[in-house]
Amino acid sequence: MIAEPVATGSETAYVDGFQPGFLGCIAQMHGEYYARVWGSGVAFEEQMARELCDFYDAYHPERDLLLTAHVDGEFIGSIAVNGAQTERPGAQLRWYLIAEEAQGRGIGRVLLERAL
Predict the structure, then answer these.
(1) pTM of this prediction?
(2) Chain centroid, CA 85 distance in Å
(3) What is the DSSP code (8-state) at residue 112?
(4) Per residue in 49-98, pLDDT tens?
(5) Which pLDDT value is given to residue 88?
(6) What CA–CA distance (Å, rounded) separates 47 from 45?
(7) Residues with Cβ within 8 Å of residue 57, at least 6 apart in sequence
(8) Which tens digits make up the pLDDT trace of 38-52?
(9) What does each C-alpha distance from 43 to 22, 29, 35, 46, 48 come to in angstroms?
(10) Where does the chain show beta strands of DSSP type E?
(11) CA-CA distance, 67 to 115, in Å (whole number)?
């Protein structure tokens, strides 16, 4: 059973897969967050964006997952599962982050439950 986010008077929508703008939103959110919290710079954001683009290039919806969350149409978070076989068998959880202003509403829990 998937838990729904706590009611806040705002509508939360979850979108499976890529749509125009999602790559940029994910890269921007992660770049800004890690710069603020960990002091990372543009090099980190570049590496993360390259890996995200590589994920998009190899994306197969029966194996992989990109799930984004939007509150009143505004992008506020994402999670991805890379199911491609790399060095080790299994899947890799990536790009899981919720905008600070949207935290505490259960949105991240829904993303994580759906990804698992």
Answers:
(1) 0.85
(2) 20
(3) H
(4) 999 999 999 999 999 999 999 999 999 999 999 998 667 778 889 999 99
(5) 73
(6) 5
(7) none
(8) 999 999 999 999 999
(9) 20, 15, 10, 5, 9
(10) 12-16, 65-71, 74-82, 92-98
(11) 8
